[in-house]
Write a structure and sequence with these properties.
By secondary structure, the protein is of the alpha/beta class. The chain has one domain (21-516): Alpha-Beta Complex (Amidase signature (AS) enzymes), CATH 3.90.1300.10. It has 17 helices and 16 strands. It has helices at 64-69, 72-82, 87-97, 101-119, 128-139, 184-191, 204-207, 240-247, 264-270, 304-315, 336-344, 354-364, 368-386, 395-404, 414-418, 426-449, 503-516, and strands at 21-26, 43-45, 50-52, 122-125, 153-157, 195-200, 217-218, 222-223, 253-258, 273-276, 296-301, 327-332, 347-350, 454-458, 472-476, 493-498. A 12-stranded mixed β-sheet has the order 4-6-5-9-11-10-15-16-1-14-12-13, with helices on both faces. α8 packs parallel to α9 (264-270), α10 packs antiparallel against α17 (503-516) and α13 crosses α16 (426-449).
């Protein structure tokens, strides 16, 4: 089995929120037989090689100078200092060791050059990041306690525009569409002093091309793999590369998008922290959409503090005041160890009411995917009208490209094709989303009647809650390293789903859950 040379640690965590929400206890299975990967013809995937014909490769040539300046000894020193530390901890380590912004960039790119050709987490590097790091060095500034993102190295999902790079969402149909401006997310990151190093791989078109493709595959980037059990474990998606880039130590922070599960699910799979903003709390301009009535950006990191820093810079979401006041959550089938840990953190667990359970069931039964299929065409047309898109003007042009170039979609295009002949009208899909918002409001009210701020359960989460614009977060419950047994890692995570869109309050609940630390002894 191929391995990476450095150990990667996700901090211990468990979390809580100060608004109404849903916390679910994830039980991701391994070796579940659902990978759906081709391993013949244009595909080669084994313990040493992972390739797909036509995939692009990272051009490291512009980085040769700074990579040659980073000695193996210095790289090892930085690696040891960064181990097990989040953004703030790494900033402190950089100050203590005198790590320049250029050295930090070189450190992460060296990690990519060593293993990304196999794990396929990163799509593309931006050579302009070298000048950005050098400019900060010339000014003598880097990360500080009050500016932890200044000089931090970040990556963004391949459907988030970075000026001068293709914003292709992993699709060959859009690969010639070079962004002429940064997305709002990237603008915010640059304003905070972050070094935007490049783009991450993803499930092509944010997993809205076909039902039959494996998570993490795009024709441009190839097959993104799980960091610890690449041949057997589903890395989930669609923000696959953003999640695995944190696990593989390719960046300080990464950013993704979610319509229904695309941040939370890969974060759980990778054993890292992840959160999706409440709808409307973060500008989605410059993001290739699935449905602009639902899509939201998200952040991946190594602590809840990382998530808060990322949202503040990318979205202008200020954190709420931290509190240790008692909280009540609703038990949806928790492990006794977690219940006890929550109790020690002044979090009381109570049983759910019957009406609340029924309302959650009704939300799950909504034809949400049908509504998204109805919304993808108008959303794409709006995006194409305001952003470089090659020769594409609408969904029909996109589908026609794939029909004329079947090699660009080896797993088919059955899902995106449905957008041309959807059985649900746009107005009908709007009614579905409105009903989802009503149900989420009702969940909020029913929890409040019980004095509870969250639902906590052993499940895969409630991705349908995004129909109501809800914010979501997940935190791992145990330290995750490369050596951790595969059947343990990924099973222990709490996913928190706020019944309103208050991202800042969601992150405060996540911080409280993180502080419970159920497996610390």
């Amino acid at each position: 089995m191929r391995t990476i040379t450095r150990f990667v640690t996700a901090l211990v965590a468990i979390g809580v929120i100060a608004v109404s929400g849903v916390i679910t206890y994830n039980t991701l299975s391994s070796r579940d037989g659902s990978l759906q990967r081709h391993a013949d013809g244009d595909f080669t995937l084994d313990e040493e090689v992972n390739t797909y014909a036509g995939q692009t490769e990272i051009d490291y040539a512009p980085y040769d100078g700074i990579l040659s300046d980073l000695s193996p000894e210095r790289r090892h020193q930085i690696s040891v200092a960064f181990e097990g530390r989040d953004l703030v901890g790494r900033a402190q380590a950089r100050r203590e060791l005198g790590v320049t912004n250029t050295e930090a960039l070189a450190y992460y790119v060296a990690n990519m050059r060593e293993s990304n050709s196999y794990y396929r987490s990163v799509l593309q590097l931006d050579p302009d990041a070298i000048a950005a790091a050098a400019e900060l060095d010339a000014r003598g500034v880097g990360p500080s306690p009050d500016q932890p993102l200044r000089g931090a190295v970040v990556l963004v999902k391949g459907n988030i525009a970075v000026k001068g790079l293709p914003n292709d969402a992993g699709s060959r149909a859009l690969h010639s569409a070079e962004a002429d401006a940064d997305s709002s997310v990237v603008e915010g990151l640059r304003a905070a002093g972050a070094i935007v190093a490049g783009r991450t791989n993803l499930s092509e078109l944010a997993n809205f091309l076909t039902f039959d493709a494996p998570n993490g595959f795009s024709a441009v980037g190839g097959q993104a793999l799980d960091a610890r059990d690449p041949l057997n474990r589903d890395p989930s998606g669609s923000s696959t590369g953003s999640a695995t880039a944190i696990a593989l130590d390719y960046a300080d922070l990464t950013f993704g998008t979610e319509t229904q599960g695309s941040v939370i699910s890969p974060a759980v799979a990778a054993g890292v922290y992840g959160a999706k903003a409440g709808y409307g709390e973060c500008d989605i301009s410059g993001i290739v959409p699935i449905d602009d009535r639902v899509d939201s950006p998200g952040v991946f990191g190594r602590s809840t503090a990382d998530l808060a820093v990322g949202f503040r810079a990318a979205c202008g979401i200020d954190p709420v005041r931290a509190t240790d006041a008692g909280l009540t959550v609703i038990d949806m089938g928790l492990d006794p160890v977690l219940v006890a840990a929550l109790g020690r953190a002044r979090i009381t667990v109570v049983e759910p009411g019957t009406e609340l359970q029924q309302t959650i069931g009704e939300l799950r039964d909504l034809p949400f995917i049908d509504a998204l299929v109805a919304g993808v065409g108008p959303s794409m047309e709006t995006y194409f009208s305001g952003n470089p898109s090659g020769r594409l003007e609408n969904l029909h042009d996109l589908v026609e490209f794939y029909r004329q170039h079947p090699e660009a979609a080896p797993y088919g295009i059955d899902l995106i094709e449905q957008g041309l002949t959807t059985g649900m009208s746009l107005s009908e899909s709007g009614e579905v989303l409105d009903r989802g918002r009503d149900l989420v409001d009702k969940i909020n009210e029913l929890m409040a009647e019980q004095g509870a701020v969250a639902l906590v359960g052993r499940a895969d989460g409630l991705p349908e809650i995004t129909a109501g614009g809800s914010a979501r977060a997940t935190v791992p419950l145990i330290p995750v390293t490369q050596n951790l047994a595969v059947d343990v890692y990924g099973k222990y995570a709490v996913t928190i789903e706020a019944a309103d869109g208050d991202t800042a309050a969601l992150l405060e609940i996540a911080r409280r859950v993180e502080a419970a630390r159920p497996f610390d002894g």
